[in-house]
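lol ok so funny story. i was supposed to be doing the assay writeup but got distracted and ended up predicting the structure for this chain instead. priorities right. anyway since i did it might as well share w the group, maybe its usefull for someone
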Amino acid sequence: MAVEIQFPYTVPPGRLAAACREAGVECVLINMPAGQLDAGELGLACLPGREEQFAEAVSQAISYAQTLNCRRVNCLGGKVPESHSRERCWDVLVANTRLAAGRLADAGIQLLVEPLNATDIPGFILSKISDGDELLAAVDHSNLALQYDVYHRRAAEEDWLGGLEQRCDRIGHIQFSDFPGRHEPGTGELTMERLFDLVERLPYQGWTGCEYRPTGTTEESFAWRKALLARRRA
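and the output, tada:
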């Protein structure tokens, strides 16, 4: 079994690592520090003038990932501030992502970037899957891959299954939740069995993780998994 920890930085890494060992789970993904979340920031990578803070965030993410024995770190690109053009922020994003990809490669950790969607996250610099493609091409580093969230792709009105299949060789991690609402499977319109069947057919070797808001308790929200396994056994 495995877990993702979105932002682990309020807890000492050794304490988290001990908790994972005690629970018998592997930590497979953390996010890089993403700035002032309570002020609406969602990533430092594209922010002009914050390059030193971004470099510090890379160091902190590496330290946590190494202690947790976590092999993947997601870098949130950030929102384009009104004081700067998207073009200027894009140049900063490319330079910072290239720096992070190299430093994480030296540490044996894969760097991921995640396109979100402009409806839920207005102003986010990577709002379409094509933005992620463009960033990978611009950075041109073997240690950089996509984090592919099917909810964000559907919310962006993109082909959530076809986009995954087309980019299988560029994807380092997959996340899922239903749409709309970002709740557990079975609460919306997405047929997750199609996703799981596709992932099994593809030469994808990474993790596929739940990232949803349960409509009830966490335990209750796993009813979809029991139903899915029962259908497959039948």
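The domain at 2-233 is CATH 3.20.20.150 (TIM Barrel). The CA atoms of residues 186 and 224 lie 7 Å apart.
back to the writeup now i swear
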